[in-house]
Amino acid sequence: MSAAARLHLLPVASAAAEADAQGPEWLTETERLRLQAITSPARRDTFLAGHWQARSLAAQWLQLDVRRIALDAHADGRPLLRVDGDAAPLHVSLSHSGDWLALALADAPVGVDVELPQRERDWNALARFVFSAEERQRVQDADDAARADVFHALWTLKEARGKRSGEGLQPRAARAVTAQPAEAAGAEALSWAFGNGALALAMMPGTRLERVGEALGAPTYWRYAVSAGDAPDRD
Questions:
Q1: What are the 4'-phosphopantetheinyl transferase domain coordinates in residue numbering (predicted)?
Q2: CA–CA dist 201, 104 (Å, integer)
Q3: What is the pLDDT of residues 104-143, one digit of tens each?
Q4: For 4-226, which CATH class?
Q5: CA atoms within 13 A on the CB side of 204
């Protein structure tokens, strides 16, 4: 039986308000200490929103009382769901940007990234840092009106893959992999244009996406391949 995934896209403000309404008891001691160290109200809201929604949505999937679920972390930093102290049979990935929280759940490794840029960037410089030769060419070849969209689609695909594997966005390794358009049946990643940016979801090949955030339209399908133009040991 193939793995399944669900993607949720939520406004941070409403998700944080829902978390606040639960009181502080649901937080672990580690989470309470982390929350106390956060001085920015926006960052506090994002922390609460993500940590509560990870529990709440996992409880819905597993049909368990939310009080049995906690959020911990793998050794590589990826979030880890626990049920009664033991690792849950679900993987979770979180991302936030601007006013939005993206959360993916799956019964196989998964990574999600949302990017809503707040300022102008030097896309070509950033592309040279982490994009493969093919991806850099795609950014350069895009016309002025589409270049930002192309960049953000590829950037979020790169981030989502790093979250799926747990390696994060390591420039040398990232340049050795390229995102290529794929048919839906063979895709391991999906991307959506969202606001003035993009959202991407990286799943294990063969995973079926059961539910998608209502704010998203039709996705573009992708697979990851070894770049023909970048050696893995490039500095």
A1: 109-170
A2: 8
A3: 999 999 999 999 988 777 777 888 889 999 999 999 899 9
A4: alpha beta
A5: 12
Q: Alpha helix locations (H) across 79-142?
A: 123-130, 133-141
CA 197, CA 148: separation in Å to the nearest integer? 8
How many other C-beta atoms can be found within 10 angstroms of the C-beta atom of residue 129? 12
- Round the CA-based radius of gyration of the chain to a whole number and report it: 18
Distance CA 70, CA 56 (A): 10
Comparing CA positions, the residue from 90, 106, 80 lying closest to residue 8 is: 106
> Residue 14 CB: number of other CB atoms within 10 A?
12
> Position of tokens 């989470």?
31
Residue 91, amino acid: H
pLDDT per position as a tens digit, 77-112? 899 999 999 999 999 999 999 999 999 999 999 999
Note the residue count of the chain. Answer: 235
- Residue 122 phi/psi, 5-degree rounding, is -90, 90
